[in-house]
Amino acid sequence: DPPLKAGVILFPPFVSKEGTNFVGIAVDLWTEIVASLGTKSELIEYPSRQKAFEALEKREIDIIVAPLSI
């Protein structure tokens, strides 16, 4: 199976970047979810929520990993 594509939006402490690695509360939670599903994930950075949602609508990514309110 191909890895799940997860869009991330930098928003410390939920999503931060250390070098080329993404870290933070939301990233830790997503990592646990991916492990429980027995699959892999690719994290793709977006500069804004709008760009991430556009990618989601175009099915370029499967999920957004970031603090979002509904």
Describe the structure.
The radius of gyration is 11 Å and the shape is globular. The protein has 2 helices and 5 strands, in the order E-E-E-H-E-H-E. With 70 residues, the protein is α/β, with parallel strands linked by helices. The strands form 2 sheets. Strands 4-1-5 form a 3-stranded parallel sheet. The mean pLDDT is 95. The longest helix is centred in the middle third of the chain and has 13 residues.
Kindly summarize this structure in a few lines:
This protein is 31% helix and 30% strand. With 70 residues, it is of the alpha/beta class.
Compile the SSE list and pairings.
Elements: E1 4-9, E2 16-18, E3 21-23, H1 25-37, E4 41-46, H2 49-57, E5 63-65
Parallel strand pairs: 1-4, 1-5
Antiparallel strand pairs: 2-3
Q: What's the arrangement of strands in the largest beta sheet?
A: 4-1-5
Helical run tally:
2
Strand content: 25-35%
One letter per element, helices H and strands E, the order comes to EEEHEHE
Number of strands: 5
End-to-end gap? 31 Å
Determine the mean pLDDT. Answer: 95
Q: Outline the low-pLDDT stretches.
A: none
Q: Give the C-alpha Rg.
A: 11 Å
Q: Per the principal axes of the C-alpha atoms, what is the gross shape?
A: globular
Structural class: alpha/beta
The largest β sheet comes out as:
3 strands, parallel
Q: How helix-rich are the residues, as a percent range?
A: 25-40%
Keywords:
70 residues; alpha/beta; 3-stranded parallel sheet; 2 helices; 31% helix
